Fold these 3 entries.
Entry 1:
Amino acid sequence: MGKASTMNIPEHPLREVLDQEAHARPPTPVTAPARVTHIATVTGEQAALADHAHLTRLCSHFQAAPPPADATHASLDLGPFRLKWERHTEFSTYTFICDGASTAPFKEPAISAVPADWLAGLPGEVIAAFHLEVESESAPERDPDSLAGLFDNNAIAGGMVLDGNARIWTDFRFHADRFGRTLVRAGALSEHSLGRLIQRIAELETYRAMAMLAFPLARDARPRVAGAEEELSQIIATLATVEGTDAERDTLAELSRLAALAETVAADTTFRFSASRAYHAIVQDRIRGLREERISSIQPFGSFISRRLAPAMETCENLARRQESLSRRISRASNLLRTRVDVALEAQNRDLLASMDRRAQLQLRLQETVEGLSVVAISYYLLSLVSYLAKGAMAAGLAVPDPFLVVTYAFIPVIGLVWLGVRRVRRAITREGGLKE
């Protein structure tokens, strides 16, 4: 049996897609010195077409082929600069790369070569933006004063990364142009390793900002959750003293209102909290990927991010737990109160049925009494007819006994026949009504 030159086993329809995803968004190789500008804009989940259309306009300006319409990332060489574009679930990122150093760090950023009107028309709203200067290993070392001057004398965070093969510094602040600043000394890194480092730094800034979007939302929602918790505690405290169906229904209406409030707050925050949880996990992974070592007298890069981000994320997680607990407590209280209302209604129904049963028994006895009276009345009229017939026959000369004797003889048969007739009629009516005797 010969060897097969191609695979003839049926493949999963998503195998190709999954393989492409494993190689998606590769880092762009960067050679030091270089200038990089990174911008992330929040556009929402439905803005992919608008992002692609805007990117196509930039490609047309530089007479370059745009990426396919269904592309979610692209690396483009537009001449004066290279552009790496990525479309994510709710935001897009643009990384502009220019080779070569500027006359002074951060004075000629990479976006200097980008048309200003195109930048102004970027879809969405900027959530992260910074300039990054990459210095080569051969560049002169900077003293602390010179380094501080690059960041307007702000406090600097930084460290040695990638097993000491590069150094990074930043102040995590906006400057006059509303961009942040990061300085990288490349060391002995290859162009691919340097590209991965720049990508990690860009992702850290972007995902850190996206994760923090949940913090203002949590801060605004906290008073609403606290107010609902206090109201719920008061309602639960009065549950034991609530008496009467009307009072229980009013309390149940209050619980329903609190449940609606809790669901409204959850609807406003659940997506953002879940997204921030995912973004925070990515930030932590990227910090570990830097393999940072401390530089004397400077706060580590990753430590700065973790110290500021972790409390905000814990605030969001705490509020999310409170929301879940609030919903569970409202549900338990509502179930308890509904049970009490149901028990009270069942007791009322039981009493009502008992009353109806008593009335039915009374009606039955009354019916039996009426039956007896009916038998007597009908028998009386029938015996009267018999008496009249006997008297008439005697007057006509017929040989009949005394009418009094005729009535006496007919008394028992008439009473019996009338009773049987009335009883048969009652049985027929009972059967038609589906009732039991």
Entry 2:
Amino acid sequence: MLLQRIRKAAPDARLEVSAWRTQAYEDVAAGRIDVALSAEAVPPTLEYELIFNLDFVCLVGSAQPVRTRRFTLKQYLQLPHALVETLDGQQTMVDRPLAQLGVKRRVALRIPFFIPAIFAIARTDLILTVPRKLAKIAADGWSARGGTAS
């Protein structure tokens, strides 16, 4: 939806999307890049706008015997996880709140992108925490790959 809006408003604009890196905010401040989209806290020297909120759900590989619609925190932490690295070896939108509670997930797989992670866990015992919108997009083909959404 964001890309559609940008293309409609500025059809001649050239977009270049890259993976998040720790110096992205420095690049914005220095004028090397125009916009940084991030779930990270924005330095007070930069302007920012909240463009959407995300909530997360779990995709569960078909070899995982736990079949429940909701996990308790204790159950969630005991299960083996695939982690999509968004910054510094973490999936920050998941791992930072867990760290604030003083807990960590059991990570069995680290992978840098969501879509390959979805394919990777389908027939395993791993669970993958993803934005609900992505889970809905993936749901059409998910059952064909052997997994379920929770």
Entry 3:
Amino acid sequence: MILNSRNNLFNFKFPRTFIPKEVADKYRKYLNRMPGNLITEPIDFVNYSIQGVNMPGVSFDPIQVSPNDGTITYHRGAIPIQNTIDRQFKVTMQLLDGYINYWILQDTLLYYYSKQVREPWINDIKLQIMDAEGIHIISAVFEKPIMNSISELDLNMSSNVAEFTTFDVNFYYNKFNLALEID
């Protein structure tokens, strides 16, 4: 029997070097105070809160040609593929108690756009797609990504119940590689 796909069969984590040392040091003390002391590293805390990844589809705008007979025909364009694809993706994160993961990511974004940072990109980020048995089928690698925005934080005094809420972190990438992992 052929199974339908499930949207939760993916593995996506930020690399260990994603959160700069300066930012990690700032939040490590707080994470060590949390009851249970389960997660002590900021990158593990951020990776724990990942809920989803949204990649745009691929589309090409055809070239429209009108020969002298009054008809219209469409042709593939000559523009390089990397210039026709919207090279961005969005990571949806669960807001955790105290919004700590939000502050960690906001400080990370501000760090990457500060004047003292010389690296133009962060380390490559990998998205692995699995089948129903947990076998990795495809790896999608976002090469030379840059973090470009974090969505707003919506606070409201009339809502005093703990609920599942999310925020988004947006990235641009320079190159996208797919690797088939089936033997």
